From TrEMBL:
EC id: 4.2.3.1
Pfam families reported in the protein's UniProt record: PALP, Thr_synth_N
Species of provenance: Vibrio algarum
Domain Threonine synthase N-terminal, first and last residues per copy: 8-78
NCBIfam families in the cross-refs: thrC
Annotated family: Belongs to the threonine synthase family.
Pathway connected to this protein: Amino-acid biosynthesis; L-threonine biosynthesis; L-threonine from L-aspartate: step 5/5
Catalytic activity: O-phospho-L-homoserine + H2O = L-threonine + phosphate
Protein name: Threonine synthase
InterPro entries in the record: Ser/Thr_deHydtase_PyrdxlP-BS, Thr_synth_N, Thr_synth_N_sf, Thr_synthase-like, TrpB-like_PALP, TrpB-like_PALP_sf
Domain Tryptophan synthase beta chain-like PALP as annotated: residue spans: 87-366
Cofactor: pyridoxal 5'-phosphate
Amino-acid biosynthesis is among the record's keywords: yes
PANTHER family: THREONINE SYNTHASE-LIKE 1
């Protein structure tokens, strides 16, 4: 697999390099030079999740890893299902929260950990990542206890739910967590600064586990195929998919699935009021505003770092950006949709409900709708209980971590202070 840097096209890397490096020069994102296409998608959809996924990923990775190796990585990473549930006539929820940290980021995080271990050149590795909640947990659990890999996770203090925080800040060992006195964008910009510091980068073998890392996106392609595989051929021919978006990794993966041959009629890019992308699609102007805290806080991102990949893919495929649907959902509206879904007999948290809302508004006759449920309702228990007046059950993995000691350090959004933490993590 060859990939190039979107910003500096002459920088070309292998899959292994892209996974180890995360970002290219000048903070450029890597993008595949060639995308395979599957001519017989129907046959592919007949296969089970793990073998189909390893075929897709093997076709992307090429001969850098053998098919057997890829099958083993996928088998280790995807040890939980991605079922679709019928919510009402013609509308399905894709449940991506059956992994160990109950959010879709388990797919990407676990495949990345497996890939990195497979392509390591034996040097030091420090994973530095910023999280608005779910990435941190997924990455921490995916890398926990791995030898020679240190993980440093930054998150905005007080801006993620307590249950979420407990899930990844209580592990210890090779997992170091830092609460930053600022918002998610500040965390993300600290990560970028660290990547810009070439000397530091080499000294500690810096690597990002953000959705910046191509391996995470590659893993996420697979569950779009898995959703289609659970539908009838007639249903999936007119498929419209609504993706609750923050950093836009999930939507990038969906569009990549389409580029590989998955028939998807339309995608809807849905955000909360942090609506940089929907406004851009409307006006053609990229005008990020300060990030606003919402009840769907994993989507509180105003400078989504995967967007350039979507533009690149659309440019290559000749897909006009105007073919992309868009939706913006406020907290009040998402609460309404959580209630509406509950009345339909489906318990959903705000991120999934946001995707449902714009899908429901925009779905036309004869189309099949799919909205992505990116987190287990219990991960957003406070919000869901508040909306529904319930006391929903907390699954065992969350309950266990809720009572453990929080091991995080607290830091201002200051790069020098972060450097000290990164160096200390080496010891
Ligand atoms: C990360 C996350 C999102 C946003 O996904 P992106 O790939 O960053 O667009 C949505 N919902 C939940 C629950 C998340 O954790």
């Amino acid at each position: 697999m060859k990939l190039y840097n979107i910003k500096e096209n002459d920088e070309q890397v292998s899959f292994g390099q892209a996974v180890r490096q995360g970002l290219g020069r000048n903070q450029g994102l890597f993008f595949p030079s060639e995308l395979p296409t599957f001519s017989d998608v129907d046959a592919l959809l007949e296969e089970d999740f793990v073998s189909r996924s390893s075929k897709i990923l093997s076709a992307l990775i090429g001969d850098e890893l053998s098919e057997e190796q890829v099958l083993e990585l996928v088998g280790n990473a995807f040890q939980f299902p991605a079922p679709i549930k019928s919510v009402k006539e013609g509308v399905y929820a894709l449940e991506l929260f059956h992994g160990p940290t109950l959010a879709f980021k388990d797919f990407g995080g676990r495949f990345m950990a497996q890939s990195l271990a497979a392509v390591t050149d034996g040097g030091k590795i420090t994973i530095l990542t910023a999280t608005s909640g779910d990435t941190g947990a997924a990455v921490a659990h995916a890398f926990y206890g791995m030898e020679d890999i240190n993980v440093v996770i930054l998150y905005p203090k007080g801006k993620i739910s307590r249950l979420q925080e407990q899930l990844f800040c209580t592990l210890g060992k090779n997992i170091h967590t830092v609460s930053i006195n600022s918002d998610f964008d500040a965390c993300q910009s600290l990560v970028k600064q660290a990547f810009d510091d070439q000397a530091l980068r080499e000294e500690i073998g810096l690597n990002s586990a953000n959705s910046i890392n191509i391996s995470r996106l590659m893993a996420q392609i697979c569950y779009y195929f898995e959703a289609a595989a659970q539908m009838s051929k007639a249903e999936r021919e007119n498929l419209v998919i609504s993706v609750p978006s923050g950093n836009f990794g999930n939507l990038t993966a969906g569009l990549l699935a389409k580029a590989l041959g998955l028939p998807v009629k339309r995608f809807i890019a849905t955000t909360n009021v942090n609506d940089t992308v929907p406004r851009y699609l409307e006006t053609g102007k990229w005008e990020p505003k300060p990030t606003i805290a919402t009840t769907s806080n994993a989507m509180d991102v105003s400078q989504p770092n995967n967007w350039p990949r979507i533009e690149e893919l659309c440019r290559i495929k000749g897909w006009g950006l105007d073919t992309l649907g868009k939706g913006v959902v406020t907290d009040e509206q998402s609460a309404e949709s959580v209630k509406e879904l509950n009345d339909l007999g489906y318990l959903c948290e705000p991120h999934g409900a946001i995707a449902y809302r714009s899908l429901n508004e925009q779905l036309q006759d004869g189309e099949t709708g799919l909205f992505l449920c990116t987190a287990h309702p219990a991960k957003f228990k406070e919000v869901v209980d508040d909306i529904l007046g319930t006391d929903i059950e907390v699954p065992a993995p969350l309950a266990k971590h809720a009572v453990m000691e929080n091991l995080s350090e607290e830091l201002n959004a200051d790069f020098e202070a972060l450097k000290a933490v990164l160096r200390k993590a080496q010891k």
